[in-house]
Amino acid sequence: MTRTSSTLDSIVRALHSAFVEVLVAPAGSDVPIGSVTLVDADDLAAELYTTAAAADLYLLAGVREADAVAWFDDLATRSSDLRPTAVMSKIAASSTLMQHAARTAGVALVAVHTQTRWDRLLSMVRGVLDHSSPSITTPPPSSAEPSELAGLVGADTDLFGLAHTVAVLTRGMVSIEDQRSHVLAYSASDDQADELRTLSILGREGPAEYLRRLEQWGVYDAVRRSDEVVEVPAHSDLGIRRRLVAGIRMTATQDGSGTPRLVGTLWIQEGRRPLTDDAPSVLQGAAAVAARLITRILEAPTNEAVQIQRLLGARGGGVDVPSLAAALSIPTDGPAAVIGLAALDGAAPDAPSSATMADLSGAIRLHASSFHRLSLVTTLGDRIYVLVPRTRAETSVPSWTRRLLEGIEARTGIRLRAAVASPVAALSEVAAARREVDRVLDGTAGADDRVTTLADSRTSVLLGEIVDLLLAHPSLHDPRMAALVEYDARTSSSLRESIATYLRHPSDVRRAAADLHVHPNTLRYRVRRAEEITKTDLSDPAARLLMELQLAVLARQAST
Q1: CA–CA dist 397, 14 (Å, integer)
Q2: Which of 529, 464, 455 is nearest to 498 (CA)?
Q3: What are the pLDDT digits (tens) for 294-330?
Q4: Contact of 92 with 176, CB cutoff 8 Å
Q5: How far apart are alpha carbons 553 and 473 in whole angstroms?
Q6: pTM, rounded to two decimals
Q7: What is the pLDDT of residue 353?
Q8: What pLDDT is attached to residue 103?
């Protein structure tokens, strides 16, 4: 999945040399990087028994020096096309053994700041790969005059390029954050970068006392309420320097109508020189550009997302599975599982939107990678799909899915449900597995079990599909039901509800009456009245079956 516009050099430039540093580069730093994976010690041990690299760039999380050196020694015995291009490690800077082993293996080695969060680093590297741009590798020269750069704020750049340009124009240090205060891009830092900026870029929280004061001072409220630039004064007692911040807002429609929603913030920290007088106006203009860039990122699927969606059969046309598998660095053989995630119907009045589900997919991607490092995640509309190649065990996938849903609810309050397709033998069958997942999600919206399979829910799934089939063919609608609908509407009665409850308990009138909170004789009267109106004998099993199906059709019509 190599892209010529993404190189090791462009990734290091985007992450900045304060947090990553190239230690070893046998083939130079201008080598192409098209994919990245996060591996732990267990994954690395398994790598010793494989013959191909899972990605171009490896992030070694929690891997000891001895294990890393042994792995590099193994890589040295492989041909260049069977080993990764580069490796990032937190212990590399202090390990001459790792540096020597990487050089012998012909693999670039990059040191990572010890306080960096791996999940944030993985997310940022993937952001560079997914939305790489020449502006990352060729930023405006820092020696340029502001007048020469004024037009670049509106140029077709990316978030990193925008951050750099704003930094030059304002003489400050810029960071662009999403609505959850996660750093999306930033400009270079100098020795005046305070602790808040450093920790934010590393993926760590800033000083708790300072964040609490921002809330107390109403900074976040002001950004949410207004388009105006908010000034945050310096606080030497907290080691915090002066800042300006503006909200990044995007509209829901292309013509600019609709209520704008906050999608992030743009910050400028003052460094060794005071900010320029026009910094507030530059910040406002940059916030508008950032909104367009973030909108473009959110609306345009990445190259990897398109490939996964094609593999899942979501984009039509013929699919070259071997080519897609090679591009995604996953095997074509072995059992594969597909998981579908959707909002739990009726969980809350503000059920997660497609945009919210897209936001969740990033977190799910990280959890899926930790469960199985070859896992792939994509979003289609208001559903998220997880593809797990070479599943470890059939029972482990539903168990992991349950833990995932519990974790998401605990952290975000969002309640999801999931469907797990029966494992398929090879990647060529995952499109069919996704269709199975959709059948289950469509047919189990009100089910009690939040994680289910077609085997576990076949009755409700098939019944729902039968009702959909009846609904789509008016010739199969029983005209006698119209009289029942008309009677309920004219008399404000509830005969349909009463009959539906009665049919669920055909041999227990007392239980059905209890469910309706009426006397059994009242229910018996309603049944006789419905039989008279529809000219139906509900003592006939065939009539009862038809009535149940027709009532289900009416219920489906009322809900759509």
Answers
A1: 36
A2: 529
A3: 777 666 667 778 888 889 988 766 778 888 888 788 8
A4: no
A5: 11
A6: 0.50
A7: 56
A8: 94
